Amino acid sequence: MSDNAESKQKELDRIAKELSASRLSRRGLLDRLKAIGVGFGAAFMLGAKQSDAHNALDASARLKSTNTALNGIIEEGSRAAPTGEGESAPEAEDRHVQTAYRRVFRRVYSRI
Amino acid sequence: MLELNAAAPDRSTGAVMSAPVELPIFTFVLVKLASRCNINCTYCYWFRDPEVYNKPPVLTLEAEDAFCARLEQHIREFGLARFQLVFHGGEPLLFPKYRFIDLQKKLREIEFRTGCRIERGVTTNAILVDEEWANLFRTNDVQVTVSLDGPPEINDKYRVDFKGRGTIAATLRGIDCLRAAGIDPGLISVCNPSTDPERVLAYVVEELEIKQFDILPPDATHSDHPPPIADYFIKLFDVWFDRYAERGVRISTLDAMIRGLTGHLSVSDTIGLGPIDTVTLMTDGSLEALDVLRIAGPGSTASNLNVRTNTLQDIQNEPVWREALHASTNLAEACLACEFLDSCGGGHLAQRWSAERRFDNPSVYCESWKQILGHIWRRIAPTLVLEHDVSRRSAQKRTASG
């Protein structure tokens, strides 16, 4: 592992600890990930870039939950995005808007 | 409005789109089988644009045939294996049964000829559901969603008939018919912020025995000055999380917020970041943008396109549809500085509307969403585990560099 990756790894470990200790706001999480060039969130997955850290965005992070119900919600959507396409973070070098994804019409309880 | 593109200034989230949204190939159409309704809900967005009264009461046969031809053409052109239709209104069951049977036959024939699976859903107040309708839905594999706001004292406050009488008894009869036919309906409710969400949850889960449903914020624009929804949704989340989550109860709007907060894509147009590209087929065959945008007032979604003369994809040249798509991925400046940008996405597009700035606003519920999302974050954060791919990416880089 390169020095850069190692330092990122250490910082991510610190972030994870603070998160589990409820010492990290969402703002804090976003800022800390951004500072080490790690992409996170729907904006990143949809092709957003972080303007000042764009070139350094060579990794991505995501959250899971130890709560079964919460993790079910998180995982279900990850296995099949609303239009049936899987959700995944784009590669840093090929980050573009994923047109297959859209916010689905919700005036129906969509099990279809 | 600041566009989410590379030229936009950095914000604390740094979230700015690096590329314009490519125009989509449609796989979903909202089909208005009826432009009228058999009840008179006080909050309904549909009739806020009175132009619906200039449309035929139900989908005309000419429009239906033209739509089916366009749909088949579209499926063939793009080689689609799956397409979704949601039958909607007004009240879609004002559409005659014999016409509904014919329409399903036409859709089955398209499926047979193209090999494309056409998934169907309907959203109804269920008042007109009888054994015959229920069997039609079952035999045609139509997923049914019933609109109902909660127990009688809540539902019947706003969901009233044209004489101001509550409608829940008739809706419950419809649900019984559906169940007798073996259909387990979904349910959508509109929240009334002055009521108790705990009562709604208890009613839906314990009394109606429905475990998967949605509760939507009331449709409103910046002209409406709606009451805040924060207290309602915060309590809704707490009651759900503490008592119902582990029982498998799911509420789509809460799902969307949880997914957004944890860095995943939203599953809803109610809240979350992502493109809105809904196409609406009106009863005269005209093609319009997302129907809820009618909330902006007379003529707000009017278009010159019609399936008789236009393909489905043609709506991508229609100004209102284009504006909606553009606005859904280009948020107001205030949003770009928000820590909940990617989990909120400006809320529902219609709720960003003002006559002065059009969609260049945060949600009319912005302050509420911030409180709600902040609360949910604080509740779920202790359970969250951070996963990342630093090691994998690092290894890939080393391999690539030889």
Description of the molecule:
The complex is a heterodimer of chains A (112) and B (402). Chain A has 112 residues and is of the alpha+beta class. Chain A has one domain. Chain A has 4 helices and 3 strands, in the order H-H-E-H-E-E-H. In chain A, strands 1-3 form a two-stranded parallel ribbon. The radius of gyration of chain A is 16 Å and the shape is globular. Chain B is an alpha/beta fold and 402 residues long. Chain B has a single domain (28-383), classed as TIM Barrel. Helix content of chain B is 36%, strand content 12%. In chain B, helix 3 links the parallel strand 4 (117-124) and strand 5 (142-147). The longest helix of chain B is centred in the N-terminal third of the chain and has 18 residues, at 61-78. Residues 1-19 of chain B have low confidence and may be disordered. Chains A and B meet through helix 1, helix 2, helix 3, strand 2 and strand 3 of A and strand 1, strand 3, strand 4, strand 6 and strand 7 of B. Strand 3 (59-65) of chain A pairs antiparallel with strand 11 of chain B, so a sheet runs across the interface.
Largest interface: A-B, 76 and 99 residues
- The SSE order of chain B reads EEHEHEHEHHEHEHEHEEHHHHEH
Tell me roughly what share of residues is in helical segments of chain B: 25-40%
Order of helices and strands of chain A: HHEHEEH
- Known CATH architecture of chain B: Alpha-Beta Barrel
The domain count of chain B comes to 1
Shape of chain B: globular
Number of continuous helical runs of chain B: 13
Number of strands of chain B: 11
Q: Tell me the number of helical segments of chain A per DSSP (H or I, 4 or more residues long).
A: 4
Q: If you compute it from the alpha carbons, what radius of gyration of chain A comes out, rounded to the nearest whole angstrom?
A: 16 Å
Structural class determined from secondary elements of chain B: alpha/beta
